[in-house]
Fold:
Amino acid sequence: MAASLSPSAISFFRTESKVKSSEVDILSLPNPSILIPKCTSLRELIQIQAFAIKTHLQNDLSFITKLINWCTEYPTSTSMAYARHLFDTMPEPDIVVFNSMSRGYSRSKTPLEAFCIFVEILDHGLLPDDYTFPSLLKACSAAKALEEGRQLHCFGMKFGLDDNEYVCPTLINMYMQCEDVDSARWVFDRMVKPCLVSYNAMITGYARSNRPNEALSLFREMQGKNLKPNDITLLSVLSSCALLGSLDLGNWIHDFAKKRGFCEYMKVNTALIDMFGKCGSLDGAVSVFKGMSQKDTQAWSAMIVAYANHGQAHKAMSMFEEMRNQNVQPDEITFLGLLNACSHTGLVDEGREYFSRMVDEFKIVPSIKHYGCMVDLLGRAGHLHEAYRFIDELPTNPTPVLWRILLSACSSHNDLELAKRVMERIFELDVSHGGDYVILSNLCARNGKWEEVDSLRKLMKDRRVVKIPGCSSIEVNNIVHEFFSGDGVSTVSSDVHRALDELVKELRLSGYVPDTSMVVHADMNDKEKEITLRYHSEKLAIAYGLMNTPPGTTIRVVKNLRVCRDCHSAAKLISFIFGRQIVLRDVQRFHHFEDGKCSCGDFW
Structure:
């Protein structure tokens, strides 16, 4: 029956003059369906179908279903088009073959095609089953189709599948992929007995949505229910530990992974390297890396990034050369690490060379992040006008982030005129970021331009732009404590505030002088400026660490913004007076304070 073959298939059989040796026995087989699992190409599958026509299997539901399953297992545009052709020729397709088609589309470049045939299935009067909704929800996830996903959710509730063990995890994942975290939690909270897959979907979603506290809270809840985590759980929990700087929990996960054999998984080891690096334990990252029997590009890149973030540029560059000697191909993350390493240590020429090699030698197309590294590299080193030209001449439209990096560099080098030009470029793209106004306002204040300061503050008020408060966190006894800048200025004093007051007195005896130039309020006197500086979030977190950890213990603090110059000076002095190592991770990099010195060499 020639109608069961597409025109391209008919043309193929008319022109094909040779048959592969693996296909010679097809004509002698009583049932060609046993060859389907052995197919290595769509061409071979078409030949099997052609013979099936001769043996009157063209309308056999089981046979055509097997053909479709093959096409949808590793879908391409061609295989899915052929699968759809087969589906359309079936006299009475059942829900099983639809599920296969839907699963294939969810993995393809056109996931929402699954809904077109879903409508046809409903028109045939077929009822969906437990496997129908997961495949359609996966298609919604792939297409970021939140509205269609919500409709499916309602449809599933009508069929009583809102607590189904297959549907709920996929539904949670769909909402997470579509960035509707609260709806995902709504589904999770209504499950009678959440399974490991459901917990993994929520924990992974929270980690990807930058909500690590909620991810770790669910992980602890899961443990309380004696649900054993798997490698997927560990990857998300380690990512959350990295975001929070939660080294104690990260160490526990490492021990757990070793006991349960998860350290045999390369991805788990790579996540451990990333976690240790971001939690300030460079030694931990190195130990995991050296213990890996096999290392792929991601593992090498994670280690290079860790060295870069800790200001050890030469070790990062040395590792890159070792990586190349072992014939491991670098990727875009590798070069992000190298460019950051050069930026954090002022190696401008080396940074330029790596950028050129990335593009010319390794044919990697730079992303906005790579461009941002180059702007940061040039800006930190004082090449402000070169950085401006670099952004202006990009082959793609610059984002506000690139201009913000340059604005920060203008502030560091006190170039008010260029900062104003940069601010104009930012405002062409985005006027809602409070940090932009604050940086330029402070720069104007340092240069005595108080009218412009007032104008910027009025502009912020008119546009209802809010400044992001500084926030620092510290982990003590497996609990992460957060402190916000300004805590203690207008609130009732607490133990940590009194401890910080005493700490500042002791620092003064050792030569500490608050850098009140950091506070640029014309209506404040020096005493008020000192109080504002005193209650910066990183100082509060360090004071809490001194109070609640044994002498000699390393204090680890994570801050959401860049550490200010005054807090940097205070931390150096605290490390000397109390004999403590302080590891401070800000939005830019790590600072290791020890014996009155910082690993950054005061270049950050």
About this structure: The longest strand covers residues 471-476. The beta strands are 471-476, 479-484, 555-559, 582-585, 590-594, 597-598. Residues 471-598 form one domain.
